[in-house]
């Protein structure tokens, strides 16, 4: 296996002394995992932040083996790390993506939407401008996975839309992984309530 693609970092899990297993979303191959040697070193740590865009090269000698991943920075959102609300939103959408999507299955609409939501978080001056995008991303993900029968009303606030999505995310999509992933969502919702309501 050998794949070269632009990808958005969704999850980074430490592995071994200095490495990490990185999961990133690509347009043509969906979510891909790879082992990055030296991921926790001073050169790669700022590159491998959830929400950043990399040019990745995945290589595996044997089918079914975890590929090695070489990551080159393409677009960094590290400048947002000092903004707790923006970081909470990036953590939530990337964690949701990593926890729910099967690896190697392309979801082009979700890939585009994830990039759009992360760009909105990065560029909008206030949460009021991007909070609705986060709620709509949840809706799109539920829809792409076959659970999109209940659409929010146009007049709903982003926090109300996210409240409607919560039960379906927990029941249908996250299952046993809900405690870890939903903690990121709860932080975001609490911060959004303070910021926009």
UniProtKB/TrEMBL annotation:
This is DNA repair protein RecO. It holds the Pfam family RecO_N. InterPro entries: DNA_rep/recomb_RecO_N. Residues 1-71 form the DNA replication/recombination mediator RecO N-terminal domain. It comes from the Bacteria.
């Amino acid at each position: 296996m050998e794949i070269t693609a632009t990808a958005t970092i969704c999850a980074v899990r430490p592995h071994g002394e200095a490495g990490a297993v990185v999961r990133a979303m690509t347009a043509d191959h969906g979510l891909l995992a790879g082992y990055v040697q030296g991921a926790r070193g001073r050169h790669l740590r700022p590159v491998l932040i959830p929400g950043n865009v990399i040019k990745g090269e995945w290589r595996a000698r044997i089918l079914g083996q975890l590929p090695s991943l070489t990551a080159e920075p393409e677009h960094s959102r590290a400048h947002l790390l000092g903004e707790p609300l923006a970081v909470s939103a990036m953590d939530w959408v990337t964690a949701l993506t990593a926890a729910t999507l099967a690896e190697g299955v392309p979801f082009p609409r979700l890939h585009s939407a994830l990039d759009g939501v992360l760009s909105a978080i990065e560029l909008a001056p206030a949460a009021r401008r991007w909070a609705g995008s986060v709620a709509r991303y949840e809706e799109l993900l539920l829809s792409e996975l076959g659970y999109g029968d209940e659409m929010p009303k146009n007049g709903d606030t982003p926090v109300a839309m996210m409240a409607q999505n919560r039960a379906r995310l927990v029941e249908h999509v996250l299952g046993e992984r809900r405690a870890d992933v939903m903690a990121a969502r709860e932080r975001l919702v609490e911060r959004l309530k303070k910021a926009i309501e």
